[in-house]
Design a protein that fits this description.
Radius of gyration: 19 Å
Strand order of the largest sheet: 2-1-5-6
Number of domains: 1
Mean pLDDT: 95
Low-confidence stretches: none
InterPro entries: bL21-like (IPR028909), bL21-like_sf (IPR036164), Ribosomal_bL21 (IPR001787), Ribosomal_bL21_CS (IPR018258)
Structural class: mainly beta
Keywords: Ribonucleoprotein, Ribosomal protein, RNA-binding, rRNA-binding
Distance between the termini: 13 Å
Function: This protein binds to 23S rRNA in the presence of protein L20.
Family: Belongs to the bacterial ribosomal protein bL21 family.
Shape: elongated
Order of helices and strands: EEEEEEHEEEE
Number of helices: 1
Helix content: under 10%
Largest sheet: 4 strands, antiparallel
Protein name: Large ribosomal subunit protein bL21
Oligomer: single chain
Strand content: over 45%
């Protein structure tokens, strides 16, 4: 089994060929391919962490779609002062499918 640990948007993801991964929003268009930097490569029993070898390793992924994460409600309240504030946030995400690890 071949898999790699890639860096995407400040996080690390374990990916193998055919996996669909949700990561922070990428600037690529839907249907285009992107390359992700590999931090670790595992090929059966062989584990590669050498920076020179990993610089040549290319993890190619296709952008499937852009989406938004779940709504997060932020409520701030102070007792007896009349201070109340309500905010919300939805993280922008990109869903990608890993095509190859070379």
């Amino acid at each position: 089994m071949v898999y790699a640990i890639v860096k995407s948007g400040g996080r690390q993801e374990k990916v193998s060929v055919g996996d669909i991964v949700v990561m922070d929003r990428q600037s690529a268009k839907v249907g285009s391919t992107i390359e992700l930097p590999a931090l670790l490569l595992v090929d059966g029993e062989k584990v590669t962490t050498d920076a020179a070898v990993l610089a040549k390793t290319v993890v190619t992924a296709e952008v499937v779609r852009d989406e938004k994460g779940p709504k997060i409600d932020i409520l701030k309240y102070k007792n007896k002062t009349g201070y109340r504030r309500r905010l919300g946030h939805r993280q922008k995400l990109t869903r990608v499918k890993v095509l190859s690890i070379v």
